[in-house]
Fold this protein.
Amino acid sequence: MFSALLAAALVATAVPAQAQVQPSAAQQQAEPNQVQGLTVVQGDGYATLAWTQLAGATDYQIERTPYAEDGTPGAPVIVGVWRPNRQINNTEPTFADAGFVPGNRFQWRVRARFGTEAQPYSAPVSGTTKAHWGDPATPGENLRTQWENTLGAQYTSDVNEYAYTAAIDEASDRVRVVEIGRTVQDRPINMLVIGYPKPPATPEAVAATNPLMVNCNVHGNEPGDREACLIMARQLAFTKDSKTLDLLSKTTMLIVPTLNGDGRAANTRGNSTGQDLNRDHSLIRQPETRFLAEMVRDYRPIAGYDGHEYGNTNTGDLPMLPPRHQNVAQGIFDESQKMIEGHMYGQGAKDGWWACPYGCTSNANVGLSEETILRNTLGLKNVVNSLLELRSSGGPTRPDESNTANNRRRKTYSALWTFNEFFKYHGASVGDITRARAEAITSQSANEGRIVFRGSRKIEAYPAPHPGEAPPPVDAPTSERILQQPPCAYKLTEEQYHGERTDGPAGKRTTAAQRIAAHGWKVIKVGDAYLVPLSQPQRGLIPLLLDEQAVEGLVAGERIAPTLTGTHNGPLVVSGVACLDGATVRGPIQVRPGATLIVNGSSINGPVNAAGAAGFVMTDSRVNGPVFVAGTQGPVVLVGNEVTGPVNATGSKGVAPLVAGNTVNGPLSCTGNSPEPSNLEVANSVRGPKSGQCALL
Amino acid sequence: MPDTLTPGLCSGPLPRVARRRRAVAGAALALLLAVTACTGSPEQRSGATDRTGDAPVAVSGPLCEALPSGAEPGSPGSLVDRSPDQALAWIPVLTTFEAAVRATGMAAELSAAGGLTILAPTDDAFRAKFSTANLDHLLLKDTETLRGLLKEHLLGGARPVAELVAAGSVTTLAGTTLAVTAAEPGARLADRAETVCADYRVTGARIHVINKVLGSLPDTAHEEENHH
């Protein structure tokens, strides 16, 4: 009895601001199997309940009782069921209660069940929940969304979203609202660019800050994440929290509230043409997906979340999934899993939210390897990222969600928790993420190893699934979906590249050339054809659109095989197109005007000289001698090479040279290239001086 | 029935938000700033009877307690002065039906002279009937079929549920005759659907929320791919 009182006193001391223990009969006399040590800590739109594990408990029920403003208690309701598959550590059970109207006052109790037999309730803890974020008397902070103002009865309309984000932009130096494009029906697709004290001025400057992105609404009939994004934008714009401001001073948050504005307005999954936009991120037939691809190309986020809702009652609160396609660089997959399982599972166990792998229901045929899904597309673009689902219905673990507003609030505040955790995780892990990204860009550019057209990496269920649930499908690649020897490049005809296409909405159709440009691939014009080398950062995605074996291809390009894989002794003069793969050249290489040289994983003992080449691509190679590339008509790509000697890139026209992740034992000099060279934030290691346009690369 | 809901902290009726939510951005901005402070005190409520001015609005059915009530935005009492299409946008379980009204351009028809009875299926009812792909198709590409479907849910005259039960059968605007039997506290329609929250009174119409989709379109929910 004494120990129960002591525990209660400690609880009251531990969370004085949020919760007080009320003396009650139940408390004064601890009953057998009564839950002890209940604490309640308020979050934004949720309350984290924690209690002491009770040996032998099958599960726990969470009861919430509302209090009217005058202190009159209402009827108690079972709002939650805690099951052992909720969290990775069952020794410290927690439950995030949500769905209530923020700001209201409640009392909570928890009881264990042995089998189905209910045990006595814990002593109650009462507290006032946090009101809608922001001081109602402080301009800016006092902005509210339509969804907040209507207590979840209505979602925020397109017009009110534009007004709300414009008001944030107006009131906060930290926020700039950028229109990244328009939908088929001409609705603006906005992005909030958020930094501290203000966001960098250009996409290029944003890219230098290792930005992170949240795509909030791709399926118009899944609007829960979008409301969280709108609230988070207000928090970031006006918070005085020093930790948040510190994080925001080092990076840039990119929030796209509504990619599918037409579908949101019509309450449809697809856009106005009926196209599921999350099956279009590789083909980018629709303007919405193409504009997002261009945003990713220009702003270069290093990490992302893609928000959805999912109609499965058995799965967790927050199903998540990394980019599983096997063409995604291992490090990007690993870092995405680290973010999900390493952080979200652990933090979820602390805060009471149940994150789990998406697809964790027997026979679910979801969460696979389609490169058309943003999760995979971003991974193939070397972005550490996750899908986020908000479980549509309350299901057995949240039995009080027949009330639609309760259900909507739980979903949105669980998304808000996730996006805030994502922001914190990114800040704490930016070193690991950028390292994984740099390795991915260099390893993809090496064009080494097999290509898989469809097929996933395995995802384990963790913790052990509840009976009836299972890990996501294995989705291993079948043999006909594997290409053991990837080509050096794909060759597209003029018709394939610039020809009119019919796979897009009338009046908004684009050519293959426009889509390839939106992804940001390097293309070499050779006579009347176009070469797309695989040895570039999005190597895993290129064959999925250009190979004849592609499942959802764009055009069937001609595979260009390597021209030299063995040893060549003596000088090599390149006219036309030469592709060296794993080759050894003992002698100088001279690339003639108008010719193209692609070199992957090769060794060259001698100077390399290219003047007026159509294109010059060298990756994952060792050169003992100087590399001089001058006046290239098309792309210059130098990634992941080791050069002993000076490297000189001058006077290229039309395409920014890519000079990234090289080790140069000698000087690196770039002059007169237009546009200027870029390293995609993957630094070169240069022994000698760096000068000219490459001084900062 | 037990009152498990409590009024929100900032739960005054916010009629201007809804009425003007299609206003131009500048006006909407001013309005957003204007409504950020809480106004009005929560109204009292008892059971499922909502009071607005002197007009009590008694809705009935098992779903009513899970819908906005009392002083909450979207409560029955707050909808009496709204046009039918506006009122639909405030009842949170009717997002599909409401979208269908807009997709078919039928908002004006819902305010027809002589009044109208709207049998509005819940979102759950639509999900149980149609796959997502089928619904997208109806909403985006086949609005003629959708219009026919909506007419299966409309009756001439703004009629309380008790009156429908008393009549024994009613004819929809699509020309279909529906048998109506009592199913306390509401009605059973065409031996298929039941009212789950009946007798929302709005300007020129009655809205009865029902739990099944009426009409004769084929079921496609089983084709759901469940990809999200």
Summary: Strands of chain B lie at 49-52, 55-58, 116-121, 154-156, 169-171, 177-183, 186-189, 193-202, 205-210.
